[in-house]
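[agent] plan:
  1. take the single chain provided in the ticket
  2. run structure prediction with default settings
  3. attach C-alpha cells to the ticket
  4. add a short note for the reviewer (M.T.)
[agent] executing step 1
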Amino acid sequence: MQEVNEVNLQEQMKYGEKILKEFDVERDLEIWENKQNRDYKIKITLPEFCCLCPRSGYPDFATIYLEYIPGKFVVELKAIKLYINSFMNRNISHEDSINEIYSVLERKLEPKWMKIIGDFNPRGNVHTVIEICSESVLKKALPEPVKTAEVAFEREKRSDFKDFSKRDSKRDGSRDRSKDDKNSRAKSASRSSDKRGTKKEGFKKPEFLGEKRARVVKKDK
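[agent] step 2 finished; step 3 output follows
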C-alpha cells in the first residue's frame, strides 16, 4: 500500500519538483572549461534562495551574491540555479547553507578567488548576512598599483614614526638642558649664600654704578 502511495506521489509531482528532489550535487552540478587566459570576475545574483529552519521548519529566504575569478572551470548557470533551489526543502541553518555552497564551489571550480554573501530576509526582528571570502588568495592576486600604494603607505607610517622619535629625542634633550641650567643656577645661588654667611655684617645691599648716597651731616651738641 505504501509503495502504491509513493508511486502516486511521484506521478503527481511536477517535473521541476522531481528534478530538485533528485538533484545530486556531485552528479548534476555541471561545470564548463574556462577557455580564457586572462583573469576576469564573474558575478552571479541568486535572489530566490530558500531553506527551512532546522528548529522550527519555517522557511528562510535570502539573496545570494556569488563572485569569483575562475581558474580552469566555470559553473554552468542552470546548474547553479538548480543547486541553489535544491535547498528549498532542506532543514539547514543560515551559516551551514552558505558554508556548504562555498565549499562545494571551491572544490568543484578551484577558483583563483571567490566570495559568497548570503543576505537573508529579516525574520523575528533579526537580519543575518553571511559572508565568506578567500582573503589569502585575494592578497596574492592584488594588482601591482595596489601593492605599490600599500608599500608607500607603510613607508610613510615608518617615516612618521621616525620623525616623532626625533622630535621626542629633541624634546628630551631640551628638557635635560633645562634641568642642567636649573641645577647650575641653584648651585651658584647656594655658593653666594655661603659667602654671605661668612661675613659678620651679614647681608650687604649691592651698590650700583652711578648710585648717589644720601649725605649725613652730624650736628654739634
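[agent] step 4 note for reviewer: The mean pLDDT is 78.
[agent] ticket updated
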